[in-house]
Amino acid sequence: MNKEISLVKSFLKEYADIVSNDCCNDWSFPDDWTQSEKERFVKQYHAWNGDPEEFNPNRLNLPNFAVASFLAFRIGNEKPSEYSIKVKNNREIKESWILNYMTKEQQEDFIKTSENNAAPYVVKFSGSSGIGESVKIFGKNNTFLADITDYDSW
Q1: What is the pLDDT of residues 82-137, one digit of tens each?
Q2: Cα–Cα distance between 56 and 140 in angstroms, integer?
Q3: DSSP states of 76-105 as a string?
Q4: Cβ distance 128 to 81 under 8 Å?
Q5: Is the sign of the CA dihedral 37, 58, 152, 94 positive or negative?
Q6: Is the dihedral of CA 84, 89, 94, 96 positive or negative?
């Protein structure tokens, strides 16, 4: 990583620490962001933050310190359009939070895959949000289990 990228990452981390002490830390997406771009960014944030169950497509608000911390992580990341979610057990597959990350057909395919394979799972998302996003399931020891990409939407 070059020194400029390292400097920006350091600055963003420090900024995140400073603004996390604000009593009001509202932040809004720029006007030129589409709904799908906003959803993808917030999905990626929650996956990175370890709380994917917090994603709600009707609540796309993030605090300013969270955005700064996430951007500090993303800068210089080799695969910024990829993120993954860990699913600990088969019961979690049917919980509502994961439905926000998958289409109904993908959810059904995930349930079918889980019937023949033991948990835990890692669901990897890559590509752009919506059209062209691939979804793959991996099991123990990073063993590939299934590709549940909705190719009909491409």
Answers
A1: 778 888 888 888 776 777 788 888 888 888 898 888 889 998 888 654 445 788 99
A2: 28
A3: T-S-TTEEEEEE-SHHHHTSHHHHTTS-HH
A4: yes
A5: positive
A6: negative
| Residue of 69, 39, 65, 63 whose CA lies nearest to 52 | 39
Six-digit token string for 113: 């895959």
Residue 145 structure tokens: 């289990």
Angle between helices 64-74 and 3-19 (to 10 degrees): 160
Report how far residue 3's alpha carbon sits from residue 57's, in angstroms, rounded to the nearest whole number: 36
Q: Give yes or no for a contact between 119 and 88, defined as CB atoms under 8 angstroms apart.
A: yes
The reply to whether the predicted model has a pTM over 0.70 is no
Q: How far apart are CA 23 and CA 26, in angstroms?
A: 9
